[in-house]
Amino acid sequence: xxxxxxxxxxxxxxxxxxxxxxxxxxxxxxxxxxxxxxxxxxxxxxxxxxxxxxxxxxxxxxxxxxxxxxxxxxxxxxxxxxxxxxxxxxxxxxxxxxxxxxxxxxxxxxxxxxxxxxxxxxxxxxxxxxxxxxxxxxxxxxxxxxxxxxxxxxxxxxxxxxxxxxxxxxxxxxxxxxxxxxxxxxxxxxxxxxxxxxxxxxxxxxxxxxxxxxxxxxxxxxxxxxxxxxxxxxxxxxxxxxxxxxxxxxxxxxxxxxxxxxxxxxxxxxxxxxxxxxxxxxxxxxxxxxxxxxxxxxxxxxxxxxxxxxxxxxxxxxxxxxxxxxxxxxxxxxxxxxxxxxxxxxxxxxxxxxxxxxxxxxxxxxxxxxxxxxxxxxxxxxxxxxxxxxxxxxxxxxxxxxxxxxxxxxxxxx
Amino acid sequence: xxxxxxxxxxxxxxxxxxxxxxxxxxxxxxxxxxxxxxxxxxxxxxxxxxxxxxxxxxxxxxxxxxxxxxxxxxxxxxxxxxxxxxxxxxxxxxxxxxxxxxxxxxxxxxxxxxxxxxxxxxxxxxxxxxxxxxxxxxxxxxxxxxxxxxxxxxxxxxxxxxxxxxxxxxxxxxxxxxxxxxxxxxxxxxxxxxxxxxxxxxxxxxxxxxxxxxxxxxxxxxxxxxxxxxxxxxxxxxxxxxxxxxxxxxxxxxxxxxxxxxxxxxxxxxxxxxxxxxxxxxxxxxxxxxxxxxxxxxxxxxxxxxxxxxxxxxxxxxxxxxxxxxxxxxxxxxxxxxxxxxxxxxxxxxxxxxxxxxxxxxxxxxxxxxxxxxxxxxxxxxxxxxxxxxxxxxxxxxxxxxxxxxxxxxxxxx
Lengths: 414, 414
Hints:
Two copies of one chain form a homodimer.
Chain A: E1 4-13, H1 17-27, H2 41-47, E2 50-60, E3 74-84, H3 92-99, E4 109-118, H4 122-126, H5 133-141, E5 148-152, H6 161-173, E6 178-180, H7 193-211, E7 216-220, H8 225-237, E8 242-246, H9 247-261, E9 266-269, H10 273-277, E10 282-284, H11 286-296, E11 300-302, H12 314-325, E12 337-340, H13 349-356, E13 362-364, H14 367-370, H15 376-392, H16 396-400, H17 404-412
Parallel strand pairs in A: 4-10, 5-6, 5-13, 6-7, 7-8, 8-9, 9-11, 11-12, 12-13
Antiparallel strand pairs in A: 1-3, 1-4, 2-3
Cofactor (chains A, B): Mg(2+)
GO molecular function (chains A, B): magnesium ion binding; ribulose-bisphosphate carboxylase activity
Organism (chains A, B): Trinickia violacea
């Protein structure tokens, strides 16, 4: 039996849902708007997309998106389609054109969102997946158990390399596990990549020699392919242990090539995710999206954070984190590490742990650490204690009684 | 004076528009949600994004997108921001993270759409732009004047290489200028790329030898980088004159690398454009989006078509086509050719010509050609005659009196 690709959608349509489902299936495989002489029954049987499931969820009187066909009411449904792998082969770029191609623009559609994806094993044979994942990241960061506590260099842009390194000096002295560049910081003339890496790694290496702990720094090497390769090599040469790329900025081919070249974990940033997801009636859920990047080789994937400063709900953040922690497919789990960020403090430790029941994650905090009256070391300690309390199921206030740094943190975390 | 990047947005916000504009500017440059000790006045002056313009357009009582801050009303405005190029250098991937990064998710935002982009000349120095553009495409296709009349191979997927070539045989015999693979057709086992190219080019080359006219075929080589390079080389070797890539499937780095390698015009497909644009309150206008791909090297860019079968309005199609025909910047026009498709017939010739006042375009029709009772040659002739009528400002019916193929076409075009 041929392997098939399954994709799930939330669909809203002004026409008969079955007709809409058939139109989408046709448009994204052997059909088009008109009957084709060459589209024989045999060809359609072999190459046509199949409507596997169509479940009516409800109706609305106003279309969620404009431009579609007019109707007195619009039916919302869950749709599952499948395609034979023979249509595109195990190719992620061609998969993209198929599952997320011209279908969002159809007139039959007044809302369409890709909510799920089930790929056959041949994709795992064709793509490498994360080279480091959870286990490799823990090894490289020297954090055997518990969450990896991290932070982001701020101001995002504007600091010169030496000022960045001075900032890093305080952070590593404070006992942090992980530091990342802001996604806006690339290789601008005010803070050239090479100088930044050299200045920062001098600090990180000195600290490692003294203490045995090499802090993982995710240097944002986002750029054109040659630049990314060259920057990766410099990070490696300077003893760095992580590189970062903005997925929507480099694209599928960019990440694939970076993965082929890289000898370091790839910290994958999702900047731009908002334009793919902020309308509930259009675009992508995180679950199918992150599968593609994990197959390509992302080791860490951003999932926002609980009680974040953005517009994303906790429910959506939890779903994203669980997706990153779930196997891409039973035959190839390809584990990656979720990265929680945005307005994070130790207050999010317990609800995050409750939601995902593990600590295989990077938890980054800015103000939640820097704001500590006892300084950065106390801020980092408070974050760790909050996680210990979460893992042990002890309320923060009680745990804080024996941990003064946490006690102080509870006065400014909010 | 430093070069600056200017981006325009349609913004809807539940807070004071000036505060929202400042928040976006801050988040996308040196600031963040909290005051930073390192963000000095001098640093902000140098690296902060600037609110260049903020014009109130109106108000609404319901937020267009969910998840933002609650308010009694939401203000809609036009916002222009600018950044110093020193923040990211002339790098398109890093530009993406800046102009279309984390801003769509801000709580201050209940609607945000990127509507315009003005880049400084250093981007044109850093990127090659289209290698062929309008003039090179005309030369390669052997179409000196008027539109390039094209079609798409259908069924999209499912035909074997020999069946595809037989289809192409009819098309070239019918006098077509341009043929493209469907964006769903890549390199699947039912229609391997190499076999398809060899079979199709045999037909195209035979025809060229006999008639002197080499029809341009855009072979969809979308895939991973090595695959694209290898496929490009095969097309070139077989005497082909065009390759096609799906932009959203290969990403920025993918197109950049293809352009560096390619010796043929790049036909750029926008499959997936719907998820970037279908909500009027989110995502991208075509004008800024296509600029990025032209800098990278797209020679042809899809713009849908007038009276199309999708949900896009004629107004939006015209704006897209005009954008593709406008200079990327005064210092570097980087001309590319718009491709009109979807439910096209000769009936769209006159309104298309009226809208863009030129014929530097590819006009693809499927049913509008195949449906002709006189066969493909008559269908192609009718398309050409419709364009001649449009250029001469003669009503179709009058022109048809002396052109029987057009006369017959007018009976089935609708």
